[in-house]
Design brief:
The structure holds three protein chains of three kinds.
Chain A (H helix, E strand, L loop, with lengths): L1 E6 L6 H14 L4 E6 L6 H4 L15 H6 L8 E2 H4 L15 E4 L12 H17 L2 E6 L5 H10 L2 H4 L3 E8 L2 H12 L4 H8 L3 H6 L1 E8 L12 H20 L7 E6 L2 H5 L6 H4 L7 H15 L8
Parallel strand pairs in A: 1-5, 1-6, 2-4, 2-5, 6-7, 7-8
Antiparallel strand pairs in A: 3-4
Helix pairs in contact in A: 1-14, 5-6, 6-9
Chain B lengths: L22 E7 L4 H6 L4 H9 L4 H8 L8 E7 L9 H14 L6 E4 L9 H5 L8 H7 L21 E3 L1 E2 L20 E2 L10 E3 L1 E4 L2 E4 L1 H12 L4 E2 L2 E2 L4 E2 L15 E3 L9 E9 L3 H11 L6 H13 L12 E6 L2
Parallel strand pairs in B: 1-2, 1-14, 2-3, 12-13, 14-15
Antiparallel strand pairs in B: 3-13, 4-7, 5-6, 8-9, 10-11
Chain C lengths: L15 E2 L2 E13 L8 H7 L9 E3 L5 E3 L3 E8 L9 E13 L3 E12 L4 H5 L3 H6 L3 E4 L5 H10 L12 H13 L15 E8 L19 E5 L7 E8 L4 E8 L4 H30 L11 H7 L15 H11 L1 H28 L1
Parallel strand pairs in C: 7-8, 9-12
Antiparallel strand pairs in C: 1-2, 2-7, 2-9, 3-4, 4-6, 5-6, 6-7, 6-8, 10-11, 11-12
Helix pairs in contact in C: 6-9
Classes of the chains: A alpha/beta, B alpha/beta, C alpha+beta.
The complex binds adenosine-5'-diphosphate and magnesium ion (MG).
Magnesium ion (MG) binds next to helix 1 of chain A.
Chain lengths: 306, 332, 362
């Protein structure tokens, strides 16, 4: 399966959440690879604690170089060799492959041409052959990266490969509206995809939403709230639920929801069991939410047509 | 280095490549445009007369590099019916035969250009060709482009949508990325030029509904390859000659064989070498043909069979296809 | 008229004579075909019918095998060199794709590199048609030691990099992609498996005394196997190196060998190496998460269904090169490892059957 991670806005938590999902899937024994298609700022390396590729990779062998045609294959980093977290050394027993294809350091957005589409399609098809889950983290909004993704997945060679779309958004009015717009609005994923040759219903069915950094009013975080504040939070939350449903981003298309987490608020990183149990810095709810998300991503039932 | 290295030609039950009979020389007795036959602007008897003075038996034996007594040569004419065919075989063929005879020439084979672009039919489908694939499609798939200096295989070979050249084109202008200075003009370069470049860029086909429109030089290349006996489909001859009766000719070219054999004791159609006696105006076309032939890689088994056979027959034969093709160009 | 000679041309061997030497370089990539089930023979034939009008070679025994016609690509670039010497080569590389058992796919690309040709200036200007007469040959202008070329080809990290040197791996990888993209395939793989890369060179024997063998262990901490043999084909020395999880290299010294057969040997070797690597990986994974109560680990089923019967070592290796196989087999212990993996899988299968029976009895 190829899973495209998108969001209308930057800073939604798309990359951090996707990286954590990738890690969890690999820990559960599924071969995973992660492509940093956030061409404007390729920083997946930093989230995966890979210092040598924190802002993309040097030497002109990253995804930018590959798509532009200056190398015949992009670098594939075996993350089990590169993640600088002691808890993951050696890789836990039963862990499957976890590979990062970083962008080029200093790489930027670029316009798309036909040869680039060919190269992108070849790469994605090959990775889908070798990995159970290929996560492609796309630049925010209606970007070249998103356009490229919609273009290649409409090609005959990728049509037979299962491709799915995740739209990440924060739990606010503006983010809900923006996420719905990106999926279903003018020049959004579905509209553009249909333009490029996708079948509307299929594409529509393959879009799901992930809510990030969601404040949970009932959680201990908000224990000290005044009754009025707590009531207001409940009310707002209910309103947002209604808004989401109206905009077609309600529960039926919700794949998961990650609570607001103190660690992630401060730092883009992987959440490991030790962060919850030993260090007790991350919330166990976050851990559970990420686990559930990883499971649902790979569970065909959660992608059943509506 | 002599002989041919065929690395992937192993024998197996399914891999049989048929040899076809070969003459020493295939002689093309001129080429006329269909319009010239229609408007009668060319005096055919005079035309063939001039050709005859270049195709005497001694001259041919010399070109074929065999003693005159042993010479096997066949003659042929290619009818230009691809673009338009206002006159049918029943009109054109007798006219050509009569005019050639008046000059003392015998035409052994008459072929139609459209045959090179016509669907191969049943064999094509078996061979992994699209159903409507023609000889021209087959030959296009045999092109191995002369690589520009620096081509190391890391990218797919550039495909130029219907054009083939003998070097590196002048870089296209128009800066790709914003804020970058436009590139200064650079000349095209011929690969392995002899001091100076003679750059040639040839149109192979053009998209024109309902399909491809093949260029005249490319169909002429297919024609040369047929005359050199180098084309096979799944190991079988790509075209076989069909006997025709000059007294019973069809009215349209589609009913006419791709290569027709006229009655008589003709030597085999295909030959080790070819000679084309043509008007000087065909120089550009034939230049293009030579360049294209130089970038066609025929089935190595076929190439090797031909060389071996020439060796057995003691016929000197160059390994490179363009060197097997000879021309006489007539002035006005 | 029959096919005389049957088109079986004995390719030039890798020899060194008169200051000239030929080095065969090549790469084989192996992977699992992107299809849910094994292809039938007509399907397999259609998938590798990559050159219109040319024949696909098929054989049914001992395992179904379909090979595409040879595909020729022109190149004009520096050839590899460990010392960084820049020597331009001009010629063509040959590739072919093959399917084994309708299940495994391989692409292989190779070229015979002719070093130190005579008059350099003249040769540099030979018409392109000359190079098409010798498909799969690259002529190099200027002096370059064969070992420098071989080391450059085998040892430079991975190829694929930004560079100007001959990139056989890229040609090979594209061909494998092209086959996998065939519309005949449903893209539903029964399980995931990594592709492997197998790079090989064939060099002239260093000592001309026929059959003289010598071997010393290669430098480096990688898993090295050396074997030697005294075959009539004069294979003097073979080094097989497992360079990393997916890259293997084979360096062979020999003379009087048919290049067709050497390429065939390498493809067969790469195939079995891939089988071993893949099954090993699956078994290692299922040992960790072995299902309780004697249940068959789910990952094993596709391996049993799709791979176990493909193991048929040296099925397509010619007489002359058989000793190389045998030698490598002994040193690298391919068959021993395979037997033990298969044995373990069988045990799991029996255990799971017992468990099912036990459930029934209760
Ligand atoms: N569940 C969460 N709780 C708190 N902060 C989060 C959460 N998820 C992500 N963040 C933070 O939000 C910021 C933006 O996340 P990032 O993944 O970089 O967004 P995007 O990829 O959408 O631009 C980062 O600082 C990240 O650590
Ligand atoms: Mg991001």
């Amino acid at each position: 399966m190829i899973l495209f991670a998108t969001s209308d806005k930057g800073g939604t938590g798309r990359s951090v959440t996707s990286c954590n999902v990738a890690l969890r899937c690999a820990l559960q024994g599924h071969d995973v690879c992660y492509l940093d298609f956030d061409f404007g700022s390729p920083t997946a390396g930093a989230i995966f604690h890979v210092d040598s590729a924190a802002r993309g990779i040097t030497g002109g062998r990253g995804l930018h170089s590959y798509l532009e045609g200056s190398v015949s294959a992009p670098v594939e980093l075996d993350l089990w060799r590169h993640i600088e977290r002691a808890e993951l050394r050696p890789p836990p027993a039963g862990a499957a492959r976890l590979v990062l294809l970083p962008g080029d350091e200093g790489g930027g957005e670029f316009p798309i041409d036909d040869e680039m589409i060919d190269r992108c399609q070849r790469l994605l098809r090959r990775l889908a052959e070798e990995f159970e889950l290929v996560i492609v983290d796309l630049s925010a909004g209606r970007s070249y990266a998103l356009q490229l993704a919609l273009e290649v997945t409409a090609r005959p060679a990728l049509r037979a490969v299962t491709t799915r779309w995740l739209v990440f958004h924060r739990w606010t009015r503006q983010h809900i509206i923006a996420a719905a717009g990106l999926a279903y609005g003018d020049h959004g994923i579905v509209a553009t995809g249909v333009d490029k040759g996708h079948v509307r219903d299929q594409l529509d069915d393959s879009v799901r939403f992930v809510r990030t950094a969601v404040p949970a009013p009932e959680s201990s975080q908000f224990a000290g709230l005044l009754p009025t504040q707590a009531a207001w939070l409940q009310e707002t939350d209910a309103e947002l639920q209604k808004l989401a449903a109206r905009r077609r981003v309600g529960r039926s298309v919700l794949l998961g929801s990650v609570p607001l987490d103190p660690v992630l608020q401060w730092r883009e990183q992987l959440i490991l069991d030790s962060d919850v149990r030993t260090l007790q810095i991350a919330n166990k709810e976050t851990n559970a939410a990420l686990d559930a998300l990883a499971e649902d991503v790979l569970n065909d039932d959660s992608w059943e047509g509506l | 280095m002599t002989g041919v290295d065929v690395v992937f030609a192993e024998t197996s039950a399914t891999d049989r490549t048929v040899e076809i009979p070969l003459s020493h020389l295939s002689v093309e007795l001129g080429h006329l445009y269909m319009e010239e036959l229609v408007d009668g602007s060319v005096d055919l008897a005079t035309y063939f007369g001039r050709i005859a003075s270049w195709t005497g038996p001694d001259q041919l034996a010399d070109l074929a590099r065999v003693p005159r007594a042993r010479l096997r040569a066949s003659t042929c004419v290619l009818v230009d019916d691809y673009a338009a065919a206002p006159l049918g075989p029943d009109v054109v063929v007798p006219r050509l035969i009569a005019a050639a005879r008046s000059a003392g020439l015998t035409i052994d084979y008459i072929a139609r250009e459209s045959g090179c672009a016509a669907p191969l039919g049943g064999v094509g489908a078996l061979a992994g060709l699209p159903p409507a694939a023609s000889l021209a499609d087959l030959v296009e798939s045999l092109i191995v482009a002369d690589p520009a200096a620096g081509f190391n295989g890391s990218r797919p070979p550039p495909h130029e949508n219907g054009w083939l050249c003998n070097g590196v084109r002048s870089p296209a202008d128009g800066a790709r990325q914003a804020m970058r200075a436009p590139v200064a003009w650079q000349p095209p370069v011929e690969n392995r030029a002899h001091r100076h470049s003679i750059f040639l860029d040839v149109e192979i086909w053009r998209e024109q509904a309902p399909g491809r429109l093949w260029s005249c030089p490319f169909l002429a290349t297919v024609w040369q390859l047929l005359r050199l006996g180098q084309l096979r489909v799944l190991g079988q001859p790509a075209v076989t000659q069909v006997d025709i009766d000059p007294d019973d000719l069809p009215t349209t070219w589609t009913q006419f064989p791709t290569i027709a054999r006229l009655p008589g004791r003709a030597a085999p159609f295909a030959a080790y070498r070819t000679l084309s006696v043509l008007d000087g105006r065909f120089v550009p076309v034939e230049h293009a043909v030579r360049m294209t032939l130089g970038q066609v890689a025929v089935d190595p088994t076929v190439a090797e069979q031909t060389l071996r056979r020439a060796g057995r027959e003691k016929v000197p034969l160059p390994a490179e296809l363009p060197d097997r093709v000879g021309h006489v160009f007539l002035g006005g | 008229m029959g096919a005389e000679g049957g088109g079986c041309a004995e390719a030039k061997d890798a020899t060194s004579a008169g200051g000239r030497s030929d080095v065969l370089v090549g790469e084989v990539r192996t992977g699992l075909l992107a299809n849910s089930r094994a292809l039938t023979e007509p399907e397999a034939t259609a998938v590798v019918a990559l050159s219109p009008g040319s024949q696909v070679r098929v054989s049914a025994r001992p395992v179904p095998h379909a090979v595409s016609p040879g595909l020729t690509l022109g190149v004009h670039c520096p050839v590899p060199s460990a010392s960084g010497t820049r020597r331009d080569g001009l010629g063509t590389v040959l590739s072919r794709a093959s399917l084994t058992s309708g299940r495994l796919v391989q692409a292989s690309t190779h070229a015979r590199i002719v070093l130190g040709g005579r008059g350099s200036v003249i040769e540099g200007r030979r018409p392109w048609a000359h190079h098409l007469v010798h498909p799969g040959t690259i002529e190099v202008v200027g002096r370059l030691p064969a070992d420098d070329l071989a080391d450059g080809f085998l040892l430079t990290a991975t190829g694929d990099g930004p560079g100007v040197v001959l990139d056989l791996g890229a040609v090979c990888g594209r061909l494998l992609d092209q086959v996998q993209e065939s519309p005949i395939l449903d893209q539903k793989l029964p399980f995931r498996a990594r592709r492997t890369r197998f790079r090989f060179v064939l060099l002239p024997c260093r000592h001309t005394a026929a059959g003289e063998s010598f071997h010393h262990s290669s430098a480096g901490d990688s898993d090295t196997t050396s074997g030697s043999s005294r075959a009539p084909g004069h294979v003097c020395r073979v080094d097989f190196v497992v360079a990393d999880e997916t890259v293997r290299t084979l360096r062979m010294h020999g003379s009087g060998l048919s290049l067709v057969d050497v390429v065939g040997l390498c493809e067969d070797f790469a195939l079995h190496d891939w089988l071993l690597t893949t099954v090993q990986h699956v078994v290692a994974g299922s040992r960790v998460r072995a299902g309780g109560g004697g249940r068959l680990p789910s990952q094993l089923k596709p391996v049993i269904d799709h791979l176990l019967h493909v193991w048929m070592p040296a099925a397509r290796v010619g007489e002359e090169l058989l000793p190389v196989w045998v030698g490598l087999e002994q040193r690298a212990g391919f068959s021993r490892q395979w037997e033990s993996l298969v044995g373990w899988i069988r045990d799991q299968l029996s255990l799971s059957l017992l468990a099912v029976l036990g459930d029934g009895a209760r």
